[in-house]
Amino acid sequence: MSDGLPKHIIGIMGPLGQHPTAQQGERRAESDHDLAIEEARPRLKKPPLYRVVLLNDDYTPMDFVVQVLQGIFSMDRSTATRIMLQVHTKGKGICGVYTYEIAETKVAQVTGLAQKHQHPLLCTMEEN
Ligand code: TYC
Question: How does 21-39 read in b/e, with b if 16+ C-beta sit within 10 Å?
């Protein structure tokens, strides 16, 4: 009974250990041994994930986009160049997949850097 897994009391055992739903008459619960225990289901849900998406435009320099992908999304130069060219040829590309607040922060960082350099680069997030 000390394996560290969450436990869930589902009833009180009869004197001979029968299942609580099968028990007749008076109930006893003098010690832990009288409790019918089953493993509780895990209670943590995985958080929703969001794709951070970069959009193409006609004006933002390719090298600026590569630097954004390296600096904000921790890509090496060849991966950043591949993603930049994917955005350039297909219209959009995924920079990464994150939980809500991290995705939101990445979008704000890209947008802020683009505005600082007066480029029209757009970045959005989409639920995965
Ligand atoms: N299309 C741009 C150019 O020809 C390059 C570019 C790539 C812009 C990716 C934005 O997200 C982008 N200079």
Answer: eebeeeeeeeeeebebeee
